[in-house]
Amino acid sequence: MGNQKLYKGSLQTIILKLLETNDKMYGYEITQKVKELTKGELKITEGALYPALHKLEADGLLDVEVAKVGNRLRKYYKLTESGSKETANKLAEMQEFLKTMQHLVNPKFSLE
Amino acid sequence: MGNQKLYKGSLQTIILKLLETNDKMYGYEITQKVKELTKGELKITEGALYPALHKLEADGLLDVEVAKVGNRLRKYYKLTESGSKETANKLAEMQEFLKTMQHLVNPKFSLE
DNA sequence: TCTTATACATTAGATTCTTATGTATATATT
DNA sequence: AATATATACATAAGAATCTAATGTATAAGA
């Protein structure tokens, strides 16, 4: 860690990608999944996650479905049709960004 | 473009890397070099660049040397010793970030 | 002459995050 | 039984980093 600030701007894309892969997820599950996939390198905070989910929902990219598990509340999010398209766009932009940065910081081992 | 916001947080690293490669550069030159290297994908604005350079200098990572070319002013920046070390750190963090993001958004084509 | 390029700089406002705080239930530990 | 940790949601203040706009001034090109 220590490079958390590099992730600034990529949270929406991460959420959308996870929902594309896993069909439906709830907030807490997303934080745990990201921690697991990044081996603890990236920890999504609630202060970042929940506003992001609310914004994606407000923008019509996600649908929400409330479920009760035991006595506890869960909000399952899934991609809308529009959300699936936007996910493809954002993933393409991310790939381009990663390629460009790779090239910038290390021209020798550029990906192409 | 359209993915400009993904670059948020990486400007310092980009500047340091350029100065590692090119020994000394002035602000305007940096904006042009980045535009060239990224084929126009990333355009560094003055409002981002100059405050960033001033901060790196204030933090002791850069030395500045004013030059007069014709009747025009140029401020050449170069890495201090401390700046060289920090560049190595930031580049390592960047590589880790890029690897992690690559893994997150496209596990199939992970870099390792 | 007028536009574009070069070269510096600051400021208002937007976005996106971290840190702190709050509420509540469930499980594990002592 | 008491306490700590995990699960699960949420908001709000403040920090950091950027974009877009504006400003000053010289040089070069049409």
Automatic annotation (TrEMBL), chains A, B:
<dbReference type="InterPro" id="IPR005149">
    <property type="entry name" value="Tscrpt_reg_PadR_N"/>
</dbReference>
<feature type="domain" description="Transcription regulator PadR N-terminal">
    <location>
        <begin position="15"/>
        <end position="88"/>
    </location>
</feature>
<protein>
    <submittedName>
        <fullName>PadR family transcriptional regulator</fullName>
    </submittedName>
</protein>
<dbReference type="InterPro" id="IPR036390">
    <property type="entry name" value="WH_DNA-bd_sf"/>
</dbReference>
<dbReference type="Pfam" id="PF03551">
    <property type="entry name" value="PadR"/>
</dbReference>
<dbReference type="InterPro" id="IPR036388">
    <property type="entry name" value="WH-like_DNA-bd_sf"/>
</dbReference>
<dbReference type="InterPro" id="IPR052509">
    <property type="entry name" value="Metal_resp_DNA-bind_regulator"/>
</dbReference>
